[in-house]
Design brief:
Strand order of the largest sheet: 18-17-16-15-14-20-19
CATH class of the largest domain: Alpha Beta
EC number: 3.2.1.51
Distance between the termini: 17 Å
Shape: globular
Largest sheet: 7 strands, parallel
Number of domains: 4
GO molecular function: alpha-L-fucosidase activity
Number of helices: 13
Strand content: 25-35%
CATH topology of the largest domain: TIM Barrel
CATH superfamily of the largest domain: Glycosidases
Protein name: alpha-L-fucosidase
Organism: Coniophora puteana (strain RWD-64-598)
Helix content: 10-25%
Family: Belongs to the glycosyl hydrolase 29 family.
CATH architecture of the largest domain: Alpha-Beta Barrel
Length: 736
């Protein structure tokens, strides 16, 4: 489906699937809108800017259309799809194209019917020996209809390998998968040596015996890019690295001058203290009232710089906490909207902790310590693109980032100082761009996590960022708030309601409403182990990452109410992390219809994570009508717990696909927050099985069949027809 929303930054809606016999099902869908102020979305199809005049009166957002692929249960013939009815102008959905790939029942084949849906030569790579092997993401689908009664014969249940070859292209490390039930898909990386490859590649599937089970031809070869130019069409091909996709969990840190007052009224960001102090500058602002009562009208925001002491800052203590919390990367705020930076801003500005109190390059210490002592913890930097009251930003100002020096909050005729300001000519060229470049070239950040967007020179920055990383042998990524060519989107204090095939990362504070520390928040209000773990698992089940923020004190301490709860989450991840890290979403469903379970996959396992503590002797797992769990006789089911992988549990699946697991109550009682049941696949590792007959079903035929032009009249026509499709060889199993 090619679509766009029209309203808030994200939207949710429902499709109704109507089956033969009168039954129906709700298909939940969450999507992105065609724009998000100020220009933070990046769709599959994207226009240029509407306007180039950056003022608060002109809409200069871009237009984005998005693509999504959704699994439809197919054990019962689908007759029609009822599209969402949207009467609310804030939640409209536009559908520009809709195609359906039906399940098929090849009459001469009793086993799985594999189809190569895509083979994408990516910008990701891994070091294999002395070379950088390019990752080719191959997506395979089992096109047979879901039916648990026939699941054994219709399922891949042995080691299958995927190879990619072509002119100048050979496989270095094949992709591997072991289980693929009807109506399911698997995405596998094949690592190839691409020595100037040209033309089209061939995907070859082999079974456990090494026999060719099928081939698929015609996939365009794209070289592994080793040089980036300041061209949006080039930079937009960049992707999140494999390490980022596997990491799943990161720690955000908001720390700066705003940590001194550490105040925010209910449901607000404490790090916005400077803005709320001035807007509005009267008793309608709780921050204005608080400041007057606590500090008096003669104290201005920059006076807090003297109290930003950082006397207890310890880079190793922070990184120890992040590591023990189970995080695989961190993102440090280097400069927020108040313009005060925690790194050496050199000749761009001296509004920095290096040139002002406490005269310390905190970012350098944090990054250097991470490099030397925590090499497996990836390093990221947050950077605010605009500055609220920088006079040089007035030329580009918009909305809540107007630029221009602040008027005194209690005497509007006076202008407040902007401490550390240097004489420059242009904000973008002399402040924003060189500071971003310094984070990339001098501090070797691996994640450029911008905020707000707006006017920028990100095209020029991204080219240098990516080239520097390539030359130094590591891979980097950039979010959607730099204003151009992002790798991933960043919903804030929000979680998508359904699987997103594009990389995304939700971010929120340990505090229910703030990123910077807020002394108004009580210890019991911070996210506890249950909230952290269940949010993480929920996000990961939808193909996302979770960036969870802590706000240290002005002295540099992460208070126990935050640290202890992070450590609680880390203990769970220490024994159940195999159901989080390096997992993939399950294509058929991310959760059970009642929301009780989340589902995740790896090549050799399937994870069922329960959010409610199981009680009684049995646990019932229902993934929904027509959804086949990838669980077969011989598989081993264990509850992951603090004592290690638990005992093998007895289980069964009935004719409707509902799974029942016999519980070990002692093991259940030993687990907190969420209960991860890991299914380990039993498969034939060496000898050919019933799946070997796939050699008689060329995958290339299935692939060409599923990519022919499609015409669908949903809910009206009796059959779904393909012009030129071999209907007699591949009849559809359902009607529309």
């Amino acid at each position: 489906m090619v679509y766009a929303g029209d309203g808030s930054s994200t939207f949710g809606t429902n499709f109704t699937l109507n089956y033969k016999g009168g039954s129906s099902d709700i298909l939940q869908f969450t999507g992105m809108n065609w724009f998000q102020f100020p220009s933070m979305n990046w769709g599959t199809i994207r226009t240029a800017y509407h306007h180039t005049n950056y003022t608060s009166l002109v809409n200069w957002n871009v237009t984005s259309l998005f693509q999504s692929s959704i699994s439809v249960p197919s054990n019962v013939p689908l007759q029609s799809i009822t599209l969402p009815v949207t009467t609310d102008s804030t939640s409209r959905m536009h559908i520009f194209a809709l195609s359906i790939t039906p399940s098929i029942v090849p009459p001469a084949v009793s086993g799985p019917a594999l189809s190569v849906q895509s083979a994408q030569f990516s910008t990701r790579w891994e070091t294999v020996g002395s070379q950088s092997a390019q990752a080719v993401a191959v997506t395979l689908v089992n096109l047979l209809p879901a039916s648990y009664a026939n699941v054994v014969n219709a399922t891949v249940n042995e080691q299958y390998t995927i190879e990619v070859s072509g002119d100048g292209v050979e496989t270095v490390t094949p992709g591997v998968f072991y289980r693929l039930v009807p109506s399911d898909q698997v995405i596998t990386d094949v690592l190839v040596a691409n020595n100037g490859g040209t033309g089209n590649a061939t995907v070859t599937i082999k079974n456990a015996a090494g026999d060719v089970a099928g081939t698929s031809e015609g996939w365009p070869i794209v070289p592994l890019r080793s040089s980036w130019t300041a061209d949006a069409s080039v930079l937009s091909t960049h992707e999140t690295p494999t390490w980022w996709r596997q990491a799943k969990f990161g720690i955000f840190t908001h720390w700066g001058v705003y940590s001194v007052p550490a105040y925010g009224p209910p449901s607000s960001y404490a790090e916005w203290y400077d803005w709320y102090l001035h807007n509005p500058n009267n008793s309608d602002s709780p921050t204005w009232v608080h400041h007057k009562e606590v500090y008096g009208p003669d104290v201005v925001y920059d006076d807090f710089i003297a109290n930003f002491t950082a006397t207890l800052f310890n880079a190793s203590a922070w990184l120890d906490l992040f590591t023990n919390a189970g995080a695989k990367y961190f993102v440090q705020v280097t400069k927020h909207h108040d313009g005060y930076a925690l790194f050496d801003t050199q000749n761009t500005s001296h509004r920095s902790s290096v040139y002002l109190n406490p005269y310390h390059d905190f970012l350098k210490e944090l990054m250097d310590t991470a490099k030397s002592d925590y090499p497996d913890l990836h390093r990221g930097t947050y950077f605010s693109m605009p500055e609220w009251f920088n006079p040089y930003y007035a030329k580009y100002g918009f909305g809540e980032w107007p630029g221009g020096l602040a008027h005194n909050a209690y005497n509007w005729s006076e202008i407040e100082p902007y401490t550390g300001l240097l004489n420059v000519s242009d904000f973008l060229e002399d402040i924003q761009y060189p500071q971003m470049l310094s984070l990339a070239l001098d501090y070797d950040t691996e994640i450029m996590w911008c905020d707000i967007g707006g006017p920028n020179m990100t095209i020029d920055f991204a080219a240098q960022f990516y080239n520097h990383a390539w030359e130094n042998g590591y891979q980097v990524t950039m979010n959607d708030r730099c204003g151009n060519v992002p790798d991933f989107s960043t919903p804030e204090y929000a979680v998508f309601g359904s699987i997103q095939t594009r990389s995304w990362e939700t971010n929120e504070g340990m505090d229910p409403f703030s990123y910077g520390i807020n002394n108004q928040t009580t210890p019991d209000e911070y996210k506890n182990g249950t909230t952290i773990i269940q949010t993480l698992v929920d996000v990961v089940s939808k193909n996302g990452n979770y960036l969870l923020d802590v706000g240290p004190t002005a002295e540099g301490v992460i208070i126990p109410a935050m640290a202890d709860n992070l450590l609680d989450a880390g203990r769970w991840l220490s024994y159940a992390g195999d159901c989080v890290y390096d997992t993939q979403y399950w294509y058929q469903a991310q959760q059970s219809p009642d929301g009780t379970f989340r589902f995740l996959t790896t090549p050799t396992t399937f994870c069922i994570v329960a959010f409610t503590k199981p009680t009684g002797a049995n646990l019932t797992v229902d993934a929904g009508p027509g959804v086949v769990l990838p669980v077969l006789e011989g598989d081993t089911v264990r509850l992951l717990g603090p004592g290690g992988n638990g005992t093998a549990l007895k289980w069964s699946v009935d004719d409707n696909g509902v799974m029942s697991i016999e519980l070990n109550e002692d093991e259940v009682d030993a687990v907190d927050y969420a209960w991860a049941f890991q299914v380990e696949y039993a498969y034939a590792s060496s000898a050919p099985s019933a799946n070997a007959h796939l050699a008689s079903l060329p995958i290339s035929m299935l692939n060409s069949y599923t990519t022919l032009p499609q015409t669908v009249s949903v809910g009206y026509s009796e059959t779904l027809g393909y012009s030129g499709a071999p209907q007699t060889a591949y009849p559809t199993s359902s009607t529309l």
